[in-house]
Amino acid sequence: MILITTPQLVNSQTEAPLKVGIAGITHSHVHQLLRRPEQGDIKIVGIAESNRDLAKRYADRYGYSMDIVFSTVEEMIAATHPEAVTAFGSIYDHLGVVEACAPKGIHVMVEKPLAVSIAHVKKMEGLAKKHKIHLLTNYETTWYSSNHKAYEMVENNAIGELRKIVVHDGHEGPEEIGVNPEFLEWLTDPIKNGGGAVIDFGCYGANLVTWLMKGERPISVLAMTQTIKPEKYPKVDDEATIILKFPKSQAIIQASWNWPFSRKDMEIYGKTGFILSDNATNIRYRLDSKETVKSEKLEKRIAPYNDPFSFLSAVIRQKITLPPYALSSLENNVVVVEILEMAKESAKTGKAVQFKK
Questions:
Q1: Could you give the residue ranges of the DSSP H alpha helices within the chain?
Q2: With bands split at pLDDT 50, 70 and 90, how would you rate the model's confidence at 37?
Q3: Which of 130, 223, 227, 297 yields a CA-CA distance of 20 to 30 A from 184?
């Protein structure tokens, strides 16, 4: 039996590209969209950005007209009528984007994580459901072949019942790697970003664990955060460890702005074996005590499963149906925000926080 672990692709006739608006361009991940080669699946019709200097700088770099740049999301929507909006501003601003788009039936995709708090996420979830829009969250690790191979192996019981998941995410620090100042300003703000490394990189692990656990919420969350470099990050943490307790397993999420180099990798341990997802395409595994460790270098995923914007178009055009608790799904990312908020509470009190049923 072959398990389908990616959303199912449905055939459809050739159609016009999806009309996409951009809400904010301070997040450096926006470059992936602005420099994306023309593939015929999406068309950028408008940009909402109040920082005209930044908008002009990117216009000169990427060749778009300043005629499509507006000061607010509302102005951009009124003038360009997008079918979907991608949010590349602060995490705090995600709620405002959904509030502007959802009542007009405009779908939204935000950069990870979905929201800064449970209060925000509940409003966003309510709006999305009421107005029947797709509300997706984009993570780099969603497009890793290694993670999907690992998921398939877990589904096929290749390593037995899950016992422990360890996820490592982070880099040397946003200032150290040279993120643009407009991004750094809100990334290191406890209100606009919701926290430091615990939010910026803790969300990856929470997202992957929720996926592997099929949406099961943990019994409790225990976390420790600290600021190792207060001279650089005086307002937020730059180091975080989060431990999730499940009935028969644990998950450990290590999020850091202090790694010696960038990393996004995962370890999955079962009753009989383990799987190590080293990067986007490399995976190692040992399925039982009699075997040796095997390694595979996987091919990159194919469209529309290799790119958030192709994926967004396919979901909206109903070529893809998201399975329960898929990495990009609203239901998964509501749990992610719940975990992160509980992690911040635990780090503040020094005690494990019980998950409310």
A1: 30-34, 52-62, 73-80, 94-101, 118-131, 145-155, 174-177, 181-187, 197-200, 202-212, 308-316, 330-349
A2: confident
A3: 223
Distance between CA atoms of 106 and 88, rounded to whole angstroms?
A: 16
Would you tell me how many other CB atoms lie within 10 Å of the CB of residue 290? 6
pLDDT in tens, 163-183: 999 999 999 999 999 999 999
Q: What angle do CA 171, 175, 178 make, to 5 degrees?
A: 90
> pLDDT (tens digit, 9 = 90+) per residue, 201-255?
999 999 999 999 999 999 999 999 999 999 999 999 999 999 999 999 999 999 9
Give Cβ neighbours of residue 23 (< 8 Å, ≥ 6 apart): 48, 73, 76, 85, 86, 87, 88, 89, 93, 97, 100
| Helices then strands, each counted (H, E), the chain | 12, 17
Write the CB contacts of 317 (distance below 8 Å, at least 6 apart in sequence): 12, 15, 18
Note the pLDDT of residue 151. Answer: 98
CA 162 from centroid of its chain's CA atoms: 23
Instruction: Tell me the one-letter amino acid at 172.
Output: E
Those residues with Cβ within 8 angstroms of residue 131's Cβ, 6 or more apart along the chain or in another chain: 102, 103, 105
The token duo for 334 is: 């509501």
Closest CA to 22 of 99, 101, 92: 101
pLDDT of residue 7 exceeding 50: no
Check: CB of residue 22 under 8 Å from CB of residue 84. Answer: no
Is residue 70 within 8 A of residue 82, CB to CB? The reply is no
What span, in angstroms and rounded, lies between the C-alpha atoms of 253 and 266?
9
Residue with tokens 């409310």: 356
